[in-house]
Amino acid sequence: MIPISDSIRLRHKPIIIYWLIGINIALFLWQLKLEFSGELGDLINNWGLIPAQITTAISNAIYFNPAAWVVVFWRSASLFLSMFFHGSFSQILGNLLFLWVFGKTLENIIGHKLFLGLYLMGGVITGIAQIILQPSLSIPLIGANGAIAAILGAYLFKLPKVKIDTIVPLVVVYIPIQVPAYFYLFWWFIQQLFYGIGSLNIPPSGVNSPNLAYWGQLLPLLMGAVFMRFHQSSPSQD
């Protein structure tokens, strides 16, 4: 099932959505270029989120060398940067599709600045959750899955019954239907299982398995819902 759009009229252009989609596509094209030249592994291993590196740096700073906090802050940059890289065609296409369908309306509801903040915090919180859940993991984690989960959580809390225009591909026939927004809470997690399709060749072996962060995405999903609980704006649904 492929979501296309919702039925809510936009009052403002989703500027942040345009920028996020553009940046993600540009960086993915750069990744493709580096894959052909054999340099992609260096990029992802330097800027992907590697929990073991951060936990080791924190341990060294606490117990051995206070100057190691510089390394902690340097490696912590991957909490932000890793969400702008993707490991497969299916991962970036799925993330950007959900970002467009659910994000454009949400950006109109809460405004540009709050939307960008929610997006970034969703990705960061997912990274922190992954460090806590698997502190010894040495495989780089990349992708905007957590950021999209936060957007989805906020949207579904505010607009759970809004109809989402959806197409269902059946071999060569595409059937248009309308699906309640809350259905995509379930479908989002099903979709995560297929994000390895069309994976880029990122050495070492086993790198970039999106499913490693699967359960860590529950936290940003809940964060998005809690955020909307305290937001005062009411969406227009005409």
UniProtKB/TrEMBL annotation:
Topology with respect to the bilayer: Multi-pass membrane protein
GO CC entries: membrane
Domain of life of the source: Bacteria
Domain Peptidase S54 rhomboid: 75-227
Major localization class: membrane
SUPFAM superfamilies: Rhomboid-like
GO biological processes: proteolysis
The protein's name in its UniProt record: Rhomboid family intramembrane serine protease
Protein's organism: Chrysosporum bergii ANA360D
